[in-house]
Amino acid sequence: xxxxxxxxxxxxxxxxxxxxxxxxxxxxxxxxxxxxxxxxxxxxxxxxxxxxxxxxxxxxxxxxxxxxxxxxxxxxxxxxxxxxxxxxxxxxxxxxxxxxxxxxxxxxxxxxxxxxxxxxxxxxxxxxxxxxxxxxxxxxxxxxxxxxxxxxxxxxxxxxxxxxxxxxxxxxxxxxxxxxxxxxxxxxxxxxxxxxxxxxxxxxxxxxxxxxxxxxxxxxxxxxxxxxxxxxxxxxxxxxxxxxxxxxxxxxxxxxxxxxxxxxxxxxxxxxxxxxxxxxxxxxxxxxxxxxxxxxxxxxxxxxxxxxxxxxxxxxxxxxxxxxxxxxxxxxxxxxxxxxxxxxxxxxxxxxxxxxxxxx
Length: 360
What we know:
This protein has 360 residues and is of the alpha+beta class. The protein has 5 helices and 19 strands. α2 runs antiparallel to α3 (125-150).
């Protein structure tokens, strides 16, 4: 038997086997998932550590020197405007008032006598003017004595809550000595520091016709039951921290908040028609963010992106991608720049739903 037919048959068999292997290899070629950015309205909520202050928080001090005769209020008590709080022993000041009143009476008599003499042209007009001046001075002394006597009764200048007492009944007080502090908690000023970049984003997108609404998370991690309004921004940045202070005002009808508390301000920033992509589709090189954009020929191109804001598992993109772009979702460590790949497209909404998060 000739060996030629056997050789030809073997060659055909090897060729068929090789083709089958190539077809099998092609059939098992890796497909990479790609998707596009999702475009929708969303919002980002950021929190800032805050200090809570009463809208009015003052020191109550003695305006006169003397013994503290009476304390009419207690620590932590709510007081009304005009309510008596402290009384300094008034005896000395009452005596001063009586003395001033008596001197005023003498000056009044002298003025009347001088007036009669002036009418009879016995004394000059200058003497009459001097008598009038002495009378006015005596009345002024009476008014001053009344003021000093009034200072011995210290009343609440506004509705508020008292702090602890710094003195006790019978204490000898000096002029200006601290008695207590008083807080008006009907409204609260909440201060929080904002970094320079976020301040610029805020001020450039801020509609001056509208007030920015914020929320307050209290120290027990529960939200305060009133929303606040950002009313003012301080003039200067802190050069050491790079922050600037914002002030929000909150109504406090139930008097839950007190002066000196802490909390966190929650400020929500809306983004209209934002481009959103999964964080897992990005990679970082030298502090810059990139994705692999896939062109119409399925060639991957390394593309830098710029992050406007961050959500759980998501980025809001400000620059670098268009809504129509396709980018690599999985396997970013398995491809190289300018490499051609086989792809399978997944709808953006499906991608977001599988991340178990959503943007409102």
